[in-house]
Amino acid sequence: MTGGGFQNIFKxxxxxxRVLYSLALLTVYRIGVHVPTPGIxxxxxxxxxxxxxxxxxxxxxxxxxxxxERLSVFALxxxxxxxxSIILQLLTVVIPHLxxxxxxxxQGRKKITQYTRYSTVVLSLIQGFGISVGLESMTSPGGAxxxxxxxxxxxxxxxxxxxxxxxxxMWLGEQITERGIGNxxxxxxxxxxxxxxxxxxxxxxxxxxxxxIGIFIVLIILVLMVVVVGFIIFCEQGQRRIPVQYAxxxxxxxxxxxxxxxxxxxxxxxxxxxxIFASSIIMFPATLASFIDIPWMQSVAAAMxxxxxxxxxxxxxxxxxxxxxxxxxxxxxVDVADNMKKHGGYIPGIRPGKRTADYIDRVLTRITLGGxxxxxxxxxxxxxxxxxxxxxxxxGGTALLIVVGVxxxxxxxxxxxxxxxxxxxxxxxxxxRIKGRH
Length: 438
Fold this sequence. Notes:
The protein contains 19 helices and five strands. By secondary structure, the protein is mainly alpha-helical. The chain is globular, with a radius of gyration of 24 Å.
């Protein structure tokens, strides 16, 4: 969206109020990231995290926006909420009660949201206790303990502080979703990732000034960044549209149906779930090794660190697996085919029912392969840039997928608000429309 687009945003009172409300709550979140949990030696903790890069702790720190590294009141971040949401989504396929709720519309959705909140608190309590116990065994490379006064008082205080912090972030996210603009939870993760950009830019200028990286390499990296972001936008908006025809039906004195439409299947149905799951599984040995000083575990951890060939092969393999697994769990071709048949819809040239379900499944399997290749390419990119071009920051991977995806979603919602207030003419002029591609 152009600069003129932002000016028009603030000409609409309700949209202006929503945008400013979202920015205010995100500011509150970023302030909370810098409020430390009591009883921690900040210097010793920072030294420990320097050693823990490339482990699960580093991944969680990215999602918490640097709060875990500082062990602030928001150290757990929004990960317990995301984990609870994913767990409940997967359980919907297994537990009939949850499956019924998911099909009950607004009331069922509210009930599942309530279960998600309770699960978030339970996961926060468990993770908070695990972190408090783990902190007591941590020391800096110089041997200084991270916890000033270990014991049950410290553990209880840490558990309550971190759980309350996560509950507050969850509330902020829901408030942004309801009264602001965009998806609140996604915007909180987005803000945490974007907050690291000034440091990355500063490191680049520092290396440029000392001659460790050349101006030509910087220009190549900038061009590559633009190309990669454009490629992600292209793929995230990419769809395979299956034509659907609805037969004419007479109900009473009225005739319904007869129109042509399409079934949009996204290239990347699973979103950022595959790289998150893949990273978590592969980084687990490296995380254990950072706590346990055993030679063979250190060797395994070294082989499983980003940049290593064995790590990259496993990473891509797990991404492919979770792309297909998560798509199979969240999208059921049989249900789609049954709903189409129930409402008189059919795919031209394909018999309704099982044949339609098989056709949709076959198309979905093929485009998921393309989606898995696309996600793998973006996620392996950071290792290539860091090892071959000496890039002083992490560009690509899950973080970039989240940032671009959230930006697209937020711009789309802003566009929808403007369209409802007859700003269609302006949008055509500015070229701000977000459209799916065939």
